[in-house]
């Protein structure tokens, strides 16, 4: 090889390695292998392709290749693919959104794909899925084809999408300089957080973007959450402990702006200064915020790679405070159960793992393919109640195995290790697909095809073919996990807090090889993420578009959307101190619902058929005692009588009468819990009396 070619190759490899640290993947070590052979198997009219003969207790009931706009039967078959790759997948009632990793000349300029999945989310039973079909409504443009839209999150009312962009496509030969004719203009920045108005899903429009190249590769993931009546977006940045962290933005939908209000970083807040010099070992990879199912306050779960899962109180987004930590390495994704399970607060944490790892110094057992840990988070109660400064939630068994030295002991030493006579606290349970390279395909459920192929090997970059990735948890403890080439795996959190596998789907369409994202994967399936709604799991395929999967043991029809109009009307938005105001809530729905509102903690409810709960000095929740379909509800408040100030009232929330949990939430909005109604947050000003 000529000297120049050698230099360019080594330089590109070094850049790839740096990018890999920020994205949680290994650098490409050569040309990706060819598309793997598939075996024939029937999957119904909606899936006219081929599959690996590998599924248990599941059936693919819908598929769309995202080849073009239209129903799957017309524009969504494997022979009509998207050229490039997808990443994250989210569902909001009738709609689903897939972020577009790359989009080549054949299907250029795509940054976000929007799908109609109402046939599935409104199905009343499994029988309704026989005629269900996914439709593609539109593509939102990405004007920088060197940038990948890595992640997408949605506002509570589904009117806005928040897209995380990183300039990494050129590193994977996915940038070809092509331009197309899609009508929906997106942002041109390569490292940015973009806000997209998707209120008309067939015509998405860019609202604003904030350039984040100052934080190296930009945001890898993001999360949206309403706090104190205001809307916030939390972004996760790599690539090391110095530059990586959580950036917090306040979104103002009236002005269409993003304001940077906070930055939180493990090194600066908790760690030793020299920690950040270790490269990609300590950085925030992903964040999830939940209204805690026990206390109702917003709690942030930060997958902070080798710094473990850091859990933060986000009641004040401008001043995040740590509550506790679960010690693990490669904390890639952490999701709290959407409600208390068996009276306990738990979360699941996963890490992304290849077997070849010595080049980055990661700690892992040789050959393992990534754990999912089930963690007891009830020790947080003592911290929230003010009885403890911080909570140590344990150390993963991965860091305690014989011959494995922990990657970081800062957390363990900081919290005293919680070492009892029986040894350190660990997770409640964990699940893993491959324990080591000694485990054979014959011993692994769903890998009959590989077991019969003497040439199929498990090594090098292809190790990521069998690694855990993003997942969701339903209210009954069902965990649906995107597990790359292991497909979508179904786990159940049992009554005694074990993780048990209940099924899997390794179905993959036979898309053309030149359409796939070759530098990251060798074929299909390649399930990046999974989300469960209404008993149907939607799996985002990085090479092949989304699938809808039904599980034999999961009932369909219990999580359909609630259709309603709800609006708050107050006497005024400007009050004098001590004034009493009537609040009217107009509700129009086709089924009975419960309704509640949120008010500032120092406002007093003086009349109304309501119950009032104070969220520990944070907010007050005003719940109407009656269920309602079409009616105006009323309550009366007295505003403070001292200083002049502005207050956020709302958002309004609604739920079916059968809802049992007061707070909580999952990866995407479901209909088994209380739902927030955006656009119903009022800013009221109280003019204090002079003394």
User: Would you identify the regions where 5 or more consecutive residues have pLDDT less than 50?
Assistant: 1-51, 273-279, 355-365, 403-409, 415-421, 458-462
**Level of helix content?**
under 10%
User: Biggest β-sheet: count, sense, barrel?
Assistant: 8 strands, antiparallel
Overall shape: globular
Rg is: 25 Å
How many angstroms does the end-to-end distance come to?
84 Å
Query: What fold name goes in the CATH topology slot of the domain at 564-687?
Result: Immunoglobulin-like
Q: Based on the coordinates given, report the CATH architecture of the domain at 564-687.
A: Sandwich
Number of helical segments?
Answer: 7
SSE layout and pairings?
Blueprint: H1 3-23, E1 55-56, E2 58-63, E3 70-71, H2 72-75, E4 84-92, E5 95-103, E6 110-116, H3 118-121, E7 135-141, E8 148-154, E9 160-166, E10 192-197, E11 205-211, E12 219-227, E13 230-237, E14 245-252, E15 257-264, H4 266-269, E16 286-291, E17 298-303, E18 309-313, E19 321-327, E20 331-336, E21 346-351, E22 371-376, H5 380-384, E23 391-395, H6 410-414, E24 429-432, H7 448-451, E25 471-473, E26 478-482, E27 488-493, E28 499-505, E29 527-533, E30 536-541, E31 547-551, E32 564-570, E33 574-576, E34 580-599, E35 604-608, E36 610-614, E37 620-624, E38 628-638, E39 645-649, E40 652-655, E41 675-677, E42 682-687
Parallel strand pairs: 19-23, 33-42
Antiparallel strand pairs: 1-28, 2-31, 3-7, 4-5, 5-6, 6-7, 8-9, 9-10, 10-11, 12-13, 13-14, 14-15, 16-17, 17-18, 18-19, 20-21, 21-22, 22-24, 25-26, 26-27, 27-28, 29-30, 30-31, 32-34, 34-37, 34-38, 34-40, 35-38, 36-37, 39-42, 40-41
